[in-house]
Amino acid sequence: MSTPTSGAPRRATISDVAREAGTGKTSISRYLNGELSVLSPQLRARIEAAIERLDYQPNQMARGLKRGRNRLIGMLVADLTNPYSVEVLQGVEAACHALGYMPLICHAANEVDMERRFLQLLTTYRVEGVIVNALGVSEETLRPVGGGGIPAVLVDRSVDGLVTDMVGLDNEGATMLATRHLVERGFDRLWFVVQPFEHISSRRQREAAFRQALKQYPQVSGRTVVLELGDADELAQTLNALDAELDAAIGAQAPGEGARHVALFAANGPVALALARHLHQRHGPDWQKRVALLSIDDPEWAELAGITTIRQPTYDIGYRAVEFLHQRIDGEQSSARDCLLPGELIERASTAR
Amino acid sequence: MSTPTSGAPRRATISDVAREAGTGKTSISRYLNGELSVLSPQLRARIEAAIERLDYQPNQMARGLKRGRNRLIGMLVADLTNPYSVEVLQGVEAACHALGYMPLICHAANEVDMERRFLQLLTTYRVEGVIVNALGVSEETLRPVGGGGIPAVLVDRSVDGLVTDMVGLDNEGATMLATRHLVERGFDRLWFVVQPFEHISSRRQREAAFRQALKQYPQVSGRTVVLELGDADELAQTLNALDAELDAAIGAQAPGEGARHVALFAANGPVALALARHLHQRHGPDWQKRVALLSIDDPEWAELAGITTIRQPTYDIGYRAVEFLHQRIDGEQSSARDCLLPGELIERASTAR
DNA sequence: CTGTTAGCGCGTTCAC
DNA sequence: GTGAACGCGCTAACAG
């Protein structure tokens, strides 16, 4: 019995169903589209039976081709390894579900040319819109998308020269909140640690906000440390250098436990993890007695390690992004909007005195 | 400047290009499909120019409709929150990239009916194959997929009554490896902690392998503890009960630091995290002095916390899955294959004496 | 209420 | 070499 052509017994088409139900394709189509009030109960029953019998499932591709809309939206994620992204994704999925879209998730794995390829691929599949959280896309790359092309909304970061909706964290507020917390807890040497930030607006904003915040506290000193997570060698080198400086800074103070004066302020989760791993490895489980750590982003391990964090409203960010996109797809013409959501301080042992 | 989001200027079609190049659609199509040897260099140049000018991008949907193949494969993931899944995904993506597929990633967020919906959706989009890592799909749900339907390959777990290719961890070997390690380190009270395992083959196998392994070591006692991570209340309750028993077990021994006799063996990363969080919260940063922890899966935080783990060859698992699928799509008729990859022991402080 | 007709954008014979 | 015509599965007028 095994048909040599194996696999596909070629799925039933709308014509098959029509024939099986003894009617025309139109009626089937109408049935599928919920125009049931226009069908005689009798015909309707026959159609249902036929569909059931043939296990018919409409071909979305063909449907989209005809209609001009396929209900697909693209979601470009720079790094799924980052819990932040996954959380945003969950919001995106929920919203898609609610609004009837199917998200096409593309994971660029932190590679710029992958991002470009995916964007082009999405375009090729005629997605109705795109949600972008990328690290290297330039205005030019996004041109076919944002401007006169398909609607796009940016997540977490904006792109220079590109005017589109954006939704993300209120970086300024979050940074202020964190800085104030550290100062209030008595830390007076703050090191803001961040990945190269020239090209990522959110990082840039956080760094700027940090320096801005410091102006309010003349008694505390602050500096920015740049950490390149991509290159393992370079990372190790930077961390070692950082360590030496940290030793110096700490050594200059009272060695007692209650005397921690310096706090590391990680610009995001990955940075915090890199720092924590390094410090743990170098100073053992008690590393937190030497230096405080606070991070924007609230990954699962933060609670385990007792790290104070600024939790982002990730789910909402994703949800709002889809809502924005949906409006654009529906023809919304207003000028580009920004949606900045507030972060929440989760206080834990790492910054306690 | 900038029209806000002017409605789609309707993308150029193949006909547009043909007209622009002063030729017929056929030639364009040939050009696109690389049959360049059949085109006069002159025509070819005109086509290239036209495509460039119109920024033409072939419509994959239409293409797929006609060809019968759209190069789409579905990837159903039960839980993207689990780093394991993301790592597998990276392997899948790499393989897809290499083999020319576009993975349609569906995240079921641990909801069984979502899985069913997605599977149906994928079918509707006529994906050429599916990679499934789900938790609740039954043989029936997968029927249209595995058997006479589109090719499928299972990841990490198999489904009762469904014969398809599967790739995952060598659970037996990994569990043996871990158990032996614990015993060799001198632990003689082993608690295997696992989520409800009746319906998940990999968990079932690990639990069985654990009990099997114990038979080799008459001097050590072992038991299985079931942890339901889904329900927060129930989880807390179980953990508290577990704690009490742990107190008893530990109290019965010498309280000295070097005398740890009981080890927790987490069946996977999420379980390990739940355990670690709870113990940390209850006993503070020094919780590891009371009890050892070892886990299958090697999430990022494991190093930070100094947890000994069995790392799964996640990337390879994903990669192999796509390769299997590719062969099936290409008509491979052999009977269902299993690919069991070995785990690797990563020894860290948590199990040191 | 229902069937007929004409494409959606593209690939593919099959003639020229 | 090149292009016209047909059809993939489906929807949208347009009749009946």
UniProtKB/TrEMBL annotation, chains A, B:
Superkingdom classification of source: Bacteria
Organism this protein belongs to: Paraburkholderia azotifigens
UniProt keyword annotations, A-Z: DNA-binding, Transcription, Transcription regulation
SUPFAM superfamilies: lambda repressor-like DNA-binding domains (SSF47413), Periplasmic binding protein-like I (SSF53822)
Pfam families named among the record's database cross-references: LacI, Peripla_BP_3
PROSITE patterns named in the record: HTH_LACI_2 (PS50932)
InterPro entries: HTH_LacI, LacI/GalR-like_sensor, Lambda_DNA-bd_dom_sf, Peripla_BP_I
Protein name: LacI family DNA-binding transcriptional regulator
